[in-house]
Amino acid sequence: MKLKNMYRPLIVVTMAGLLFVACKKSSSTDNSNTSTTDVQTQSDDQSRVSSENDAVTNDVNTTMNDQSSVTGSGVAMRGDVQTAGVYEVKSLICDATIMVDTTNATHTITITYNGGANCAMTRTRTGVVTISIPAGVKWSDKGAVVTVSIQNLKITRILDGKSITINGTHTYTNVSGGSLVNLPTLGSITHTVTSDNMTISFDNGTQRSWSVARQRVYSYNAGIVVTESGLHTDGSTTGITEWGTNRFGNSFETVFTTPVVVTQSCNWRLTSGVIEVIRPAVTITLTLGLDSTGTPTSCPGTGFYYFELVWVGAGGKTVTYIAPY
User: Fold this and answer.
1) Do 158 and 194 form a contact (C-beta atoms < 8 A)?
2) What is the pTM of this model?
3) For residue 70, what pLDDT is reported?
């Protein structure tokens, strides 16, 4: 089962709105000590890192669900045995190769990105993601925990050659148990992804630490429905999915004040959710799944959804913007 990147549309939505807002503000009047260019760069960084983390999550889930000897998904192992217990398998990921090693007490699946263009021809990836799971544990088990190590995963955008590099260790937990291939009969499956040691290296030479705490609930309604929420709490702020510092050293928190929903039956589009990005002197709130009047709507088919973006700067200065995505 190949999962789509639920954040891919979010890059377009977020950047369209934030670039508009950035052009409306003046660093000399909002007292935020943040230039228009900096706001644009920060928005781009956060969208890209969220998207690429989500892409790794999807690649990990896709790979584990395709390897029954390691994960208990019920899908037959594909590929030829190279040596006893070590397999190179046919990859469902268009820019990666996959090796499975079941010879040790900890079984591993290694995804090696080969630097080729992804299927959408938008970026290239190099680096390694290693999934580690104790022998005897199946990813489909209730409460199963796997460790995902991201090693020098460099993502380069083809459009402008800009890159980010991700390192760190993530913990994936199958809270409910069950395999996604059996989702139509199971009703729902809940996964969590957490990390407190992720580092992001930017192409200007800066390196920052980010943390992740998110929950995904997979359900089935004429196709897969993915509902994502944040698990971290900071004081009175709940629903935080990512937090840390950006390349300029400014702290940020990304909050899903309403869970973000993606539906397969609506062509894997973002159908609802409210995302809030909190930075010093600036708060940005993005509401998804609207019509042109700003009212929540059902899937528009081949038409547009709309988002409403509300930007609040220092002194309470507010800009509201509605646009299609």
Assistant:
1) no
2) 0.85
3) 56
